[in-house]
């Protein structure tokens, strides 16, 4: 049986509206509206990866489809960094324009392990905290071997720029968490150069990553510029990947 296509709209419009209830995309005008803020989606033109990283449009964020498979050879391609492009105005409109605004939306989420509890401060906007709590509960249910990933954690909310840049980190918006930093691996700490991050020795189990992805968090371990401890709430990218994958199977 062949089912009708649900929508002829661009997959990224569908993904953005599904991920962030109340947010609307006007495909004709090429705009995204979040509350009282209307932002351009950006042109369809090909742009360099550096232009996308430094000054990404909303559309640029979808240029590399986040891989749902647990295949860490994909990241060996230089600049394969799905989710590392962020449109700063979009995140400010979604979560807050200032440290104080974001801080007022934070709630506690807790990994309750066999031998330790670890708490992360995450925004309650767009169900980010509830989704993280659900993922953490799933991970904890996998048993005491999971505790090691929640010792020596890097943290969560932190209004700051990304090391070596002037761009705000996802941690500024209360949507990112860093688990065990010793087991994580971060390209800058490894002494790698931008554009050639080299080998990444992963220590995080596939099951943990899948729990996080199931609830809308992408993982920095899939990036060429690897950040293995880092997970970030990007439900639009997970949904977009699923929509694109489905369309491919038709
Ligand atoms: Zn991080």
Provide the descriptors you would attach to this structure in a database record.
250 residues, 3-stranded antiparallel β-sheet, alpha+beta, globular, 16% strand, binds zinc ion, single chain
What would you note in describing this structure?
The chain has 250 residues and is an alpha+beta fold. It has one domain (11-249). Helix content is 28%, strand content 16%. It is built from 8 helices and 9 strands. The strands form 3 sheets. A 4-stranded antiparallel sheet has the order 6-7-9-8. Strands 1-2-3 form a 3-stranded antiparallel sheet. A hairpin with a 4-residue loop joins strand 4 and strand 5. Helix 1 crosses helix 8 (235-249) and helix 5 packs antiparallel against helix 7. The mean pLDDT is 93.
Summarize the structure.
The protein is an alpha+beta fold. The chain has helices at residues 11-19, 49-55, 88-95, 99-103, 128-140, 181-184, 206-214, 235-249; strands spanning 24-26, 31-34, 37-40, 106-112, 117-123, 153-155, 176-180, 217-219, 230-233.
- Cα gyration radius (Å): 18 Å
Classify the secondary structure makeup into a structural class: alpha+beta
Count of DSSP strands: 9
Oligomer, anyone? single chain
As residue ranges, the low-confidence spans are none
Q: Please tell me what the overall shape is.
A: globular
Spell the H/E element sequence.
HEEEHHHEEHEEHHEEH
In this entry the ligands are: zinc ion
What is the total domain count? Answer: 1
Order of strands across the main sheet: 6-7-9-8
The largest pleated sheet is described as: 4 strands, antiparallel
Q: How many helical elements?
A: 8
């Amino acid at each position: 049986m062949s089912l009708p296509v649900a929508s002829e709209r661009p997959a990224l419009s569908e993904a953005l509206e599904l991920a962030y209830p109340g947010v609307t995309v006007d495909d004709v005008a090429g705009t995204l509206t979040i509350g009282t803020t209307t932002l351009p989606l950006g042109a369809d033109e090909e742009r360099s990866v550096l232009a996308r990283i430094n000054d990404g449009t909303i559309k640029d964020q979808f240029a590399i489809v986040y891989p749902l498979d647990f295949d860490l050879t994909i990241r060996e391609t230089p600049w394969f960094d799905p989710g590392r492009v962020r449109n700063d105005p979009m995140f400010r409109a979604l979560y807050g324009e200032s440290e104080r605004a974001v801080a007022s939306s934070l709630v506690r989420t807790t990994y309750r392990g066999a031998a330790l509890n670890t708490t992360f401060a995450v925004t309650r906007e767009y169900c980010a905290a509830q989704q993280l709590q659900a993922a953490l509960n799933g991970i904890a249910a996998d048993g005491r071997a999971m505790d090691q990933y929640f010792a020596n954690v890097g943290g969560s909310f932190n209004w700051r720029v990304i090391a070596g840049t002037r761009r705000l980190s996802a941690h500024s918006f209360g949507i990112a968490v860093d688990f065990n930093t010793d087991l994580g691996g971060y390209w800058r700490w490894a002494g790698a150069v931008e554009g050639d991050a080299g080998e990444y020795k992963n220590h995080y189990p596939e099951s943990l990553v899948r729990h996080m992805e199931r609830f809308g968090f992408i993982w920095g371990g899939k990036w060429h510029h690897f950040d293995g401890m880092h997970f970030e709430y990007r439900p639009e990218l997970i949904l977009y990947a699923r929509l694109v994958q489905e369309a491919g199977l038709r």
